[in-house]
Amino acid sequence: MNNIFIESHMEEIIGRIDKLTPNSKPRWGKMNIAQMLAHCSAFQDITMGVSVPERHWLGKLIGPLVKPIIYNDKPMQPNSPTIPAVRITDEKEFEFERSELKRKIRAFQANGPEKCTTNPHPFFGKLTPEQWGKGTYKHLDHHLKQFDV
User: Which InterPro entries match (predicted)?
Assistant: First the structure.
């Protein structure tokens, strides 16, 4: 499983983000390209401990049981549910969101596992830094595939 803490895996993700254009269309889902970038950026805030959304009762109940979904080798399914804290519905500006997402990914990777959040994932609960690194890669990969890159 790829891990965003591995520099070559981070660079591969950044390269794919660079292939996106303002006209990129989703294969599934309701978000446009700028909203998807803002969504991924908001998720990066969670991974870095900048944002700490409240845990949902359903996540507290079943999150620990299904936690491997976020860091195993199986791709995420199209139209997977998202946590409300990172649901983006307002209009966003493509270039700004792309730049911010790349900046946050680079900062997360540069900070390394030792500075990864110790806060629980809003749905899955407690994750190790390695699980956060794999889950972050998997989440970004999922949305880049959504937009065909």
Answer: DinB/YfiT-like (IPR034660), DUF1569 (IPR011463)
Residue 60 has pLDDT above 90, yes or no: yes
CA distance 125 to 97: 27
What residues does each domain of the chain span?
Answer: 7-146
3-state SS record for the chain = CCCCCCHHHHHHHHHHHHCCCCCCCCCCCCCCHHHHHHHHHHHHHHHCCCCCCCCCHHHHHHHHHHHHHHCCCCCCCCCCCCCHHHCCCCCCCHHHHHHHHHHHHHHHHHHCHHHCCCCCECCCECCCHHHHHHHHHHHHHHHHHHCCC
User: Does pTM surpass 0.90?
Assistant: yes
Angle at 25 between CA 19 and CA 29, to 5 degrees: 120
Give the Cα separation of 12 and 119 in Å (integer).
Answer: 27
The pLDDT tens digits for 3-28 are: 999 999 999 999 999 999 999 999 99
What's the pLDDT tens digit per position in 110-126?
999 999 999 999 999 99
